[in-house]
Amino acid sequence: MRDGVQQANRAPHILLYSHDTFGLGHLRRSRAIAEALVSSLQGSSALILTGSPVAGRFTFPPGVDHIRMPGVVKTVDADYVSESLNLDIEQTTALRASVILAAAVTFNPDIVIVDKEPAGFRGELTTTLEILKEMGRAKVVLGIRDILDSPEALSQEWERKGALDIADKFYDQFWVYGDQSIYNPLQSLGLSDDFKKRMHYTGYLRRAVPHETPAALPDKPYVLVTPGGGGDGEALVDWTLRAYEDDPTLQPDALIVYGPFLNGERRAAFDQRVAALEPRVTAVGFDSRMEGLMRNAVGVVAMGGYNTFCEILSFDCRAVIAPRTVPRMEQHIRASVAEELGLIRMLDRERDGEGPEVMARAIRELPSQAPPSGRAPAGFMDGLEKIISLTKSLLNVPAKA
Asked: Within its chain, how far is the Cα of 276 from the centroid?
């Protein structure tokens, strides 16, 4: 463990890495953390390294900016290719690694917060971690969402990637963005006592509503249907549309936000079905101010990814969660635990069925469903406050800064 002390003549530089090969979750989590830290550390700057193709569609607060690394996408056979460049995946990864290293050396961070992947995408972070360790200035933190996957699958993945060795060698702390009483995401890894001492449960990350009004905000009561980024949300959208098609009297109305990664052909087919259901059902592609749409909704129908779950709790939304089970069990585990706590209602296709009447019943009952407030343990949503405290402690910054 290194003893570097924050230099008095410079406000903290915060570097966040978010590999973002798919979806919105990693970027949105990094953005929320960056905003919280910059607002609490006077004069500080936060730089997010992201592979998200939609990073430019988000606004960033003063003191926070981002660098977009060349994108990569997963193919149908679970391999990766360059998103846009005519380069093979090795060349693309090498280019991304050089961007990361140049940014890290030039920005010279006091703290580095890595999202989920200890070595980064295909090991692209390793060289930068080695250089940062030699430089001796930066504290390095691995941020882990509350649930990564089933214990068995995570053990196999981390062993294949050598992730545990990388984490143990280079990271000063491990932050779990969840509650210890709910789930231990690393329970199957056989962690050393030293590793466990570096783990800190922060609680979930509370979200705020942006000042700007969402462009798609309806003028009458609605249920918000959100499959997150949308790339794997076709089943949720289809199930919702089948419910409204099957039951012409179904209320409340629905606003579907497809997400930016929904397949274009599938969206066109969905749009035709939505047009036949208007005005009871409307749809938009994407809105970066989802928090505003969620806060104003009668209820939420979602797949239950980490960020959506945080928003549901932050705005005390009545929610129906229909989690996916492939390629990871993360959403199903989270929804199962949340249902046991009385925070949300889960629709499990094997348990509840997957007919249109199942979704229709859940939507109809949403307005009378109990909200999650009062069901969560103390400190459940204090993640950002805990992260600020941990950061100040790591950097030896006075508590009043």
From this structure: 33
DSSP secondary-structure letter at 288? T
Model pLDDT for residues 301-334, shown as the tens digit of each residue: 999 999 999 999 999 999 999 999 988 899 999 9
pLDDT band at residue 41 under the 50/70/90 scheme: very high
DSSP structure class, residue 22: S
Cα 59 to Cα 289: distance, rounded to the nearest angstrom = 10
- State how far the Cα of 47 lies from the Cα of 37, in Å rounded to an integer: 11
pLDDT tens digits along 284-307: 988 777 888 999 999 999 999 999
* pLDDT tens digits, one per residue of 207-266: 987 777 676 788 899 999 998 876 788 999 999 999 999 999 999 999 999 988 888 899
> Both tokens of residue 192?
């050393």
- How far is residue 198 from each of residues 119, 126, 173, 219, 249, measured CA to CA in Å? 18, 20, 5, 49, 54
Tell me whether residue 321 is exposed, middle or buried, using C-beta atoms within 10 angstroms of its C-beta: 0 to 12, 13 to 18, 19 or more.
buried
Alpha carbons 144 and 178: distance in angstroms, whole number: 9
Residue 239, exposed/middle/buried by CB under 10 A (0-12, 13-18, 19+)? buried
Distances (CA, A) of 41 to 37, 132, 338, 361, 395: 6, 22, 33, 48, 11
Q: Does this model's pTM top 0.85?
A: yes
Q: CA–CA separation, 117 vs 143, rounded Å?
A: 9
3-state secondary structure of 145: strand
DSSP code at position 176: E
